[in-house]
Amino acid sequence: MMNIELRIPTEADKEGLKALCNAVDRRYLADRLPYPYTDEDADWWIRMVAENEGKSGNWRVIYVDGRLVGNISIEKKSDVYRKDAEIGYCLLTEYWSRGIATEAVKRICRTAFDGLDILRITGLYYEPNTGSKRVLEKAGFVYEGTMKNAVVKNGGVYNLCIMGLLKEN
CA of 90: how far to CAs of 81, 83, 87, in Å? Predict the structure, then answer.
């Protein structure tokens, strides 16, 4: 049985965070995650989380049996979308298909619905990313639609699939 922990990142997570962000499969991640991921990037992220945790979102590092293997966040949107938040996550490849991401998604969604003033959480995935689709489905997200040719990544153009989880569910 694996021990899965979600922790608010601190300075103690800096080296593990750098190792994760430099090793993670980036095929379906947003380009805003810097590469290479440096000390400065980790310092910025840890500070940002300390300032915003529980206010504009929830950010966690994922530990499995004491090793930092992923991260996950839910970030509130603004303006007329202020009751919605977007989930994002990544996990080291060797930890895929073990239920870790699904468990992390379920836990952070409960945290977000309990602590943030939101009505829904939006999960997005690029159409070829069937692994992320399965994670969201297993966590209770429902398919809502597809934006055609909405993502340009690594020379490819992808459809963006939208899934939602409502607080009432």
Answer: 24, 24, 11
